[in-house]
Amino acid sequence: MDRKDIFRAVDHTLLAPDAVWEEIRQLCDDAVTYQTASVCIPPSYVKRAKEYLGDRMAVCTVIGFPNGYNTTAAKVFETRDALANGADEIDMVINIGDLKDRNYQNIFDEIRLLKDVCGNHILKVIIETCLLTDEEKVKMCGIVTEAGADYIKTSTGFSRAGATSADIQLLSGNVGPNVKVKAAGGISSFSEAEEFLRLGASRLGTSRIVRLAKAGEESHG
Fold this sequence. Notes:
This protein is an alpha/beta fold. It has helices spanning 3-7, 21-34, 46-53, 72-84, 96-100, 104-118, 134-147, 165-172, 190-199, 208-219; strands spanning 10-13, 38-41, 59-63, 89-93, 122-126, 151-153, 180-184, 203-206. It has a single domain (3-219), classed as TIM Barrel. The protein has an 8-stranded parallel barrel with strand order 1-2-3-4-5-6-7-8, surrounded by 8 helices. Helix 4 runs parallel beside helix 6 (104-118) and helix 6 (104-118) packs across helix 7 (134-147). The model has no long low-confidence stretch (mean pLDDT 96).
């Protein structure tokens, strides 16, 4: 697989709580240089990043992040605010407690509502696979599909573990034809990124891939 194909699948990500604007700006510059799918950044930086980037790069941000237990009303407000500030894509976290309690209608309603708010903007649904059973993961594939979201996403990168090959296979095999899979959390090499894409992922949430590419260029510079 050509590395350009991998870059085109990457949501170049920086969500650290101590991230400063200079780091976000550099992230944006690198995303443009390597032509990634988007930059994924904290909501507080969306407006500034979009003004800086213009149409050169899609801006993605996170909603209900990282724990997902915000109220639906709070997530709706966050989403509307992010879109008003120029976000092109939204990555929301489900209420994992609702899933554990089998309150499936609540989860469906929330995803459907946020997708209605997003309209033509891409909505990705983070389910935090490391906290779920395979049965719960499959159930979420059905809910995400029926609710009309665009992606199901493995992880926030802030919990016990990130994406695994087994999870990518499971999710890609159980979502509907209009739902794609995003692998996120712990992607540490080009070979791992390529494997996730081969297994069915369409997006990769990581900053490591671009950093590796830059380090390679610097070592040969």
